[in-house]
Amino acid sequence: MMQEEVHAFIKKHHLFHKQATVLVGVSGGPDSLALLHYLCSIRKTWSFRLIALTVDHGLRGEESKQDVAYVQQICKQWDVECLTTTLNVKMYKEVEKKGTQLAARELRYQFFQACMLRYQADYLALGHHGDDQVETILMRIVRGTNPSALKGIPKKRKFAKGYIVRPFMCLSREHIESYCEAHQIDPRIDPSNEEDVYTRNYFRIHILPLLRKQNPSLHKNVQRLSESMDQDDSYLHDQALVLMDKVIDFNQTTREVTFPVNDFLNYPYALQRRTFHLILNYLYHTLPNGLSYVHEDHFFDVIHSKKPNVTFELPMGLKMSKVYETIRFHFQDHKPVDSVIRLEVPGSITLSDGSKLTATITEHPERDSKYRMTCPADEFEFPLYIRSRQQGDRMKIRGLNGSKKLKDIFIDEKISLHLRDTWPVVTDHQGNIVWLIGLKKGTMSGNVKSHSFLQLHYIKGNM
């Protein structure tokens, strides 16, 4: 009965193909031993090469060593290759500042991955079952999570150059224990599994029995929910990628993301939320534990805010800001342009961001543009200098009487706060502002007669 159910689950979800190399994670407990036994029963039919992987995490002293020895003994009886390793979880958790269970898992999967690559394995089979799925989804609901996480434990996912598969997701713990009893499999029992100080154990010991009284087939309903969520999630993910391709700008050099608010708000709310989480996945190497619904709520508060400048902080130094109609995610602002750089006339300089400014003297200047400025050669005193803005900076602007603060120009032009301190300012030898590049061109008092012209040409880098 159980074998038929698992076989149907494997076929439905295309978990294996024939003539595959299958690695099996085996701890010596009932779930993994039952899985290994089941795979042994079908290996001739499927032409599998089976290799068992077992790990001593170094956390339970002699008992852990006995678990490994027991798995080796079982593998010998069942004619299965067996690979073992000992991990230093205690040292790893101290160095990486992680909890015991997370540190053990990361090291264990590093070993699994190395074995997958070494043996060019097609699959890594693990013994997670339907009750594990119920526990996982309930824990995530209680902690608070995004809808994608309600997919729970995936039945199949890419890993190394193959896949992790979980053929027992259709079964309950009770089914597996009955299978072990029927086939005279005597598993090792980790005593820590009976301690309810761990969250998962608490759910297994106290919560699941109450739910099973209402529905003994709870694990099947939850697995169906997981599969439905997975299908919906896949569709939303694809649609969010389309949104990102059309609206979102990713700068890999500066590790920042920007997008126009109004364009973003044209898409359905569900895609906006999904895109927010994809942005976080892009910016963080590993999603921090501190992320929660609170940050998602802040995200929507910011994009709907009527204020011209709003900022909030996410974990690990990531900031999200709204400046006028642009949203920006970034870890740190760019450094200001090099303090003061001298520009000989004629001559050229290259700034640290790759931008280039060239000064020439000509009698036949080209037409002015956003990044090209022309003025009489004797209007300003040479050499010129390029710097970032300074407190109280003002400039005389062509076509206007008097002068205007750079701060007010930035506000009028709706320049983002994070760009203002890095914006290049060109001055003459006396400190008069010649050009606020790309925004305003300066002028001195005007009785200037000249047959030659100064022409400045700016080629934009990563500003």
TrEMBL record:
GO terms for cellular component: cytoplasm. The keyword tRNA processing applies. Residues 384-458 form the Lysidine-tRNA(Ile) synthetase C-terminal domain. It holds the Pfam family TilS_C. It catalyses: cytidine(34) in tRNA(Ile2) + L-lysine + ATP = lysidine(34) in tRNA(Ile2) + AMP + diphosphate + H(+). Keywords: ATP-binding, Cytoplasm, Ligase, Nucleotide-binding, tRNA processing. GO terms for molecular function: ATP binding; tRNA(Ile)-lysidine synthase activity. ATP binds at S27, G28, G29, P30, D31, S32. It comes from the Bacteria. Its EC number is 6.3.4.19. It is found in: Cytoplasm. Ligates lysine onto the cytidine present at position 34 of the AUA codon-specific tRNA(Ile) that contains the anticodon CAU, in an ATP-dependent manner. Cytidine is converted to lysidine, thus changing the amino acid specificity of the tRNA from methionine to isoleucine. Belongs to the tRNA(Ile)-lysidine synthase family. The N-terminal region contains the highly conserved SGGXDS motif, predicted to be a P-loop motif involved in ATP binding. PANTHER family: TRNA(ILE)-LYSIDINE SYNTHASE-RELATED. This is tRNA(Ile)-lysidine synthase.
